[in-house]
Write a structure and sequence with these properties.
Elements: E1 33-37, E2 42-46, H1 48-56, H2 60-92, E3 98-103, E4 111-112, H3 115-122, E5 126-134, E6 138-139, E7 148-152, H4 156-159, H5 167-175, E8 179-183, H6 184-190, E9 197-202, E10 207-217, E11 229-233, H7 234-240, E12 248-249, E13 251-256, H8 262-272, E14 280-284, H9 285-292, H10 294-328, H11 330-339, H12 343-385, H13 396-413, H14 415-422, H15 426-431
Parallel strand pairs: 7-11, 8-10
Antiparallel strand pairs: 1-2, 3-13, 3-14, 4-12, 5-7, 5-13, 6-9, 8-11, 9-10
Helix pairs in contact: 1-12, 2-10, 2-12, 2-13, 10-12, 10-13, 10-14, 12-13, 12-14
């Protein structure tokens, strides 16, 4: 088989042939090809980026499915990372000057109500003390609707200053034994208004409990208080339970003068009841939230691992498409090598195509994440478990991590096909039939 010889010296003119007809064409540098366009021989430059774009879109269906599959992986990665980040942010928003005291064995066991007076009068550094009890009832009209409902002391909102309630509504609530104050998100979700009657069906405390909504509270998103809770007066609950369950409370909440003395005050509270039949465990609000959701923390750790597995799956998706494209274009790579392309240029071409698909997938995944993850998923979490996910937002760091990871993994997925393309033999490649 004869192959063309490429030399840098001038061509020898054959006898009888005009010099103008034997003049050598200008050298075409690898990376810029010239394609004849039109009947009159017009020329246009075809650059590396043109080749990258055209080769990426050679099989538009396959490319679209690959980008879509990788975008779904990016979407899942952003969702999981945002859940983890929002969880940690929720803990950071916990008040630093507020302590939570519960039964030393379990947060589900009650404490005597008179512990409140002991803490208020015998522990230095305490500003104010209140208590609440988890009621755990269901809405009679729709038992499937879950929301936190708690029986609280009259001064509960003084210990939680981030909760904003109209003063007139708060005063009315304190004078109405069957009054209730509900979060604005819960009221909006269930269509409640001030003055509405609400019947709760007890589960821990059986019976029908009729209450009147006296006010609606709000809270800033950057707080450890969700806006979907239902508060009513502990006195109403205490009057309606059997004698054996009277004067028992669930948790005691304490505001202290100096946040820096939280550990010291916590030890003092627990020491106060160390010789009692019912001992206590006092901790910061952040630690209390983490202990209540301890089982979920293990799940969140698993989600962190799952997010990495998702990236590995995305790498396989991109690698499969790139490898198929390289195999189908073996003959074309041989032609490019014959034109003067160096192996490193072919490798760069393939890696650039992978980066283009990766960037497209990352952009699409991030764009889908905002309406799906932040608006839909985040809105539901803030409404229903806002205490633990008070500000569910996709951060710039998460977006940057998703984009950079996608690009790096896309380049890694193209590594083996690119190395293979750089090693092909020109003569073998030209004989290949894709």
């Amino acid at each position: 088989m004869r192959t063309a010889a490429y030399t840098d010296g001038p061509r020898q003119s054959s006898p009888g042939v005009a010099a103008s007809e034997t003049k050598r064409e200008p050298f075409v540098a690898p990376g810029v090809l010239h394609a004849s366009l039109g009947a009159k021989g017009a020329r246009s430059a075809v650059t590396f980026w043109t080749l990258i774009t055209k080769n990426t879109l050679r099989n538009p269906v396959r490319t679209a499915l690959t980008v879509l599959g990788a975008a779904v992986a990016v979407l899942a990665f952003v969702a999981l990372r945002t859940v983890l980040e929002a969880w940690n942010v929720g803990a950071e928003y916990a008040a630093k000057d507020r302590l939570s005291t519960r039964h030393s064995v379990s947060f589900g066991l009650p404490l005597p109500r008179h512990y409140l007076e002991d803490i208020a009068t015998k522990v230095p550094g305490v500003k104010s003390v209140t208590y609440c009890d988890w009621f755990g009832a269901r809405w009679a009209k729709d038992p499937s609707e879950f929301f936190a409902n708690l029986a609280c002391a009259d001064n509960a909102f003084e210990v939680y200053p981030e909760i904003s309630v109209d003063p007139a509504a708060l005063a009315k609530w304190k004078g109405d034994k069957q009054g209730a104050i509900v979060g604005d998100m819960l009221a909006k979700k269930l269509g409640w208004h001030v003055g509405d009657k609400v019947v709760l069906v007890g589960t821990i405390y059986p019976g029908d409990w009729e209450l009147t909504i006296d006010g609606i509270y709000t809270a800033p998103p950057q707080s450890a208080v969700d806006r979907s809770s239902f508060f009513f007066r502990w006195a109403y609950k205490n009057d309606g339970v059997p004698e054996a369950q009277k004067n028992l409370i669930g948790w005691i909440f304490t505001r202290i003068d100096e946040p820096s003395k939280a550990a010291q005050v916590s030890r003092a509270i627990d020491a106060l009841f160390a010789d009692r039949d019912i001992r206590t465990l006092t901790m910061s609000e952040r630690a209390a939230n983490n202990s209540i959701m301890g089982g979920v923390s293990a799940l969140l750790t698993a989600l962190d691992l799952v997010s990495l597995i998702i990236l590995a799956i995305m790498t396989l998706i991109l690698g499969n498409t790139i490898a198929m494209g390289v195999r189908e274009r073996t003959r074309e790579f041989g032609v490019l090598r014959a034109f003067g392309f160096a192996p490193k240029q072919l490798r760069g071409l393939i890696v650039a195509e992978a980066l283009l698909m990766s960037l497209s997938a990352a952009a699409l995944g991030v764009l889908l994440a905002f309406p799906i993850v932040q608006v839909a998923m985040g809105g539901w979490l803030e409404e229903n478990v806002g205490q633990f996910f008070p500000a569910f937002r996709i951060s710039a760091a998460t977006v940057l991590e998703a984009v950079v990871s996608t690009l790096l993994l896309g380049a890694a997925a193209a590594l083996i096909p690119a190395l293979h393309a750089g090693r092909i033999c020109v003569s073998d490649a030209l004989r290949t039939v894709a």
